[in-house]
Design goal:
Blueprint lengths: L1 E6 L4 H12 L3 E7 L11 H4 L9 E2 L11 E4 L3 H14 L2 E4 L6 H10 L4 E4 L5 H17 L4 E8 L9 H13 L4 H4 E2 L14 E7 L5 E8 L4 E8 L3 H14 L5 E3 L1 H4 L4
Parallel strand pairs: 1-2, 1-4, 2-3, 4-5, 5-6, 6-12, 7-9, 8-9
Antiparallel strand pairs: 7-10, 10-11
Helix pairs in contact: 1-8, 3-4, 5-6
């Protein structure tokens, strides 16, 4: 039985991860924690997640619970996730991170820590989105430079980072397939008299509104036709299920940084 520790247990994703763990064979909720000033600290994790009482009290720090579990599942905030990864590396605990918004230096730190513990790091845990990455590789390779590429992402008004980590990864996948350097060709905003679109650029546009869970569209625009590949998430459960699947997979793996492509056997 895999023993899971859930970070950010009082948040929307934390609650859904706890619920999915409760429904899944082979894994159990061993511990949960929140930031020290959270109003849910000291409460039962099951009740906070809208379930029956599970007998797991939400603690105020990872240090208080890290010895209770085999794997930490973290969908918190980029700065917090890096701190948790450092502690996991010191203890040799496996970890699944679905947080986005990391800086280049933070990614570098996570890579360094992953030399000492097994880590699944993915901007999107959805099985559908990770299949989308593979479909885009094929589409971009076949269509080549004759089609303009635009990515449109939409999320709820509370999302803190933009563009989404998934949109950035979609752009990187397409850029790699087209033989381009994503950092050189990505265009994140257009305003005013911008002139003709360059052939190599990959546009990424952001929408924030209401309670949109997550929508990503990759548009290949050619002369006389366009192709749109779309993924829409209607529930956070799709991300929670992917995270729990990753948690079951990562325990016992050698130290290193893994992706959901590895978890799903798509790499």
């Amino acid at each position: 039985m895999v023993r899971a520790i859930v970070a950010g247990a009082g948040g929307r994703m934390g609650g859904r991860i706890i619920a999915i763990i409760n429904q899944t064979d082979g894994i159990e909720l061993a511990a949960a924690f929140e930031r020290p000033d959270s109003p849910v600290v000291g409460k039962d994790a099951g009740l906070v997640a809208g379930l029956e009482k599970l007998g797991v009290k939400i603690e105020d720090d990872l240090d208080a619970v890290i010895d209770k579990g085999d794997v930490i599942i973290d969908f918190t905030f980029h700065e917090a996730s890096v701190r948790h990864a450092q502690k996991a590396s010191e203890k040799g605990r496996a970890m699944v991170i679905g947080t986005t918004g990391f800086s280049a230096d933070e990614y570098k730190a996570l890579d360094e820590y992953s030399n000492r513990f097994p880590l699944v790091l993915a901007p999107n845990m959805s099985v559908g989105v990770n299949l989308l990455y593979k479909l885009l590789e094929t589409a971009a390779t076949v269509l080549g430079d004759d089609y303009d590429v635009e990515i449109i992402e939409a999320h709820h008004r509370m999302k803190k980072d933009a563009p989404s980590g998934t949109a950035l990864q979609l752009g990187r996948v397409v850029a790699k397939a087209l033989g381009r350097n994503f950092d050189e060709v990505a265009v994140f905003e257009r305003h005013g008299l911008i002139g003709e679109r360059s052939k190599k650029e990959i546009g990424i546009q952001t929408i924030r509104a209401g309670d949109i869970v997550g929508e990503h569209t990759v548009l290949f625009g050619g002369i006389g036709e366009r192709i749109e590949i779309i993924h829409r998430a209607s529930s956070r459960d799709t991300f929670a299920k992917g995270a729990v699947r990753a948690a079951l997979w990562i325990v016992g793996k050698p130290a290193g940084r893994y992706s959901m492509q590895d978890v799903l056997g798509l790499s």
